Amino acid sequence: MSVQPENFRRPDLLRLSYDDYRAAPAIANSDLSRLRDALNGRPPRPISALNALSLGTAFHTALLEPELYTPGQPGINDTLVWWLVDGVKLNPELNALLQAGTPEPSCIFTEPTTNTLCKLRADLVVDQPGHPYTIIDFKTTLARDYNHFLAQCSGYDYDRQAAFYSDALHADRFLLVGVQKVEPFDVFTVEVSPPMLTEGRAKYMRLLKLLLPNAEVPSYLTETVREVANNLGQTPAES
Question: Strand, helix or coil at 212?
Answer without folding.
Answer: coil
